[in-house]
Design goal:
The structure is a single chain. The chain is α/β, with parallel strands linked by helices. The protein folds into 2 domains: 3-117, Response regulator (Rossmann fold, 3-Layer(aba) Sandwich), CATH 3.40.50.2300; 127-217, Arc Repressor Mutant, subunit A. The chain has helices spanning 11-23, 34-43, 60-69, 85-93, 106-118, 153-164, 172-179, 190-202; strands spanning 3-7, 27-31, 48-52, 76-80, 98-101, 127-130, 133-136, 141-144, 147-149, 207-210, 214-217. It has a 5-stranded parallel beta sheet with strand order 2-1-3-4-5, sandwiched between helices. Strands 6-7-8-9 form a 4-stranded antiparallel beta sheet, covered by helices on one side. A two-stranded antiparallel sheet has the order 10-11. The longest helix is centred in the N-terminal third of the chain and has 13 residues, at 11-23. The structure holds calcium ion (CA). Calcium ion is lined by residues 9-10, 52, 54-55.
Length: 222
């Protein structure tokens, strides 16, 4: 099981990250200021750190320098609203492994977390399957049986979320946060619209409506 230290002072974003990462099987610890981040990174054993640049106490760059000066080699992914190239370069030169600009979609962050942990020795499937559906994450190609299907980026991400949770009912809220990000309007009907697109392209029985709860991949025969 992988343990992730989240250093972020925005409660809504922390809640979004912890909920999403825990649902994927990660163990999370959240801290909201720079000095606590350094102390936890020193005293505990984490596999990866998500680090906000704009932290109170000591900022993310200072935290990163302290962590690297203490010879802690865990991967660090910087989360920041500052998307200036110079900030990015500073972060990477300071010893960060990757950089995600806010606002981001959960799936985008998750993919980067998985890449960093994979290079630490875990393996990950590149083709997700369910029934006659297959999604190749490397070539970004979707197929239904022998038929190749063209998906837009959002449709692809939504299908990926379904395939990573086979046999699970996903609520509109879960799909919104996974596919569109944490700052999306929860009253939006965009999830229903995109489920409609997927049904049109994949076959209308592939995604089932679970009344009052959300959507799920159809059960496979046998
Ligand atoms: Ca902040």
């Amino acid at each position: 099981m992988n343990r992730i230290l989240i250093a972020e002072d925005e409660p809504r974003l922390v809640a979004f990250l912890e909920k999403g990462l825990r649902a994927e099987g990660f163990v999370t610890t959240a801290v909201a200021d720079g000095p606590t981040a350094i102390a936890r990174a020193r005293d505990d054993d984490f596999d990866l750190m998500l680090l906000d640049l704009g932290l109170p106490g000591l900022d993310g760059q200072q935290v990163l320098r302290a962590v690297r000066a203490a010879e802690q080699r865990m991967p660090v992914i910087i989360l920041s609203a500052r998307d200036a190239v110079s900030e990015k370069v500073d972060g990477l030169e300071g010893g960060a492994d990757d950089y995600v600009t806010k606002p981001f979609r959960f799936e985008e962050l998750l993919a980067r977390v998985r890449v960093r942990l994979r290079s630490e020795g875990t393996t990950e499937q590149t083709v997700l399957r369910h029934g006659d559906l297959a999604l190749d994450l490397r070539t970004r190609r979707a197929t239904v049986g022998d038929r190749s299907v063209e998906l837009s980026a959002r449709e692809f991400t939504m299908l990926e979320v379904f395939l990573r949770h086979p046999g699970q009912v996903l609520s509109r809220e879960q799909l919104l946060s996974h596919v569109w990000g944490y700052d999306y309007d929860p009253g939006s009907n965009v999830v229903d619209v995109y489920v409609g697109y997927l049904r049109k392209k994949l076959g209308k029985d592939q995604v089932a409506t679970v009344r009052g709860m959300g959507y799920a991949l159809a059960e496979t025969a046998g």
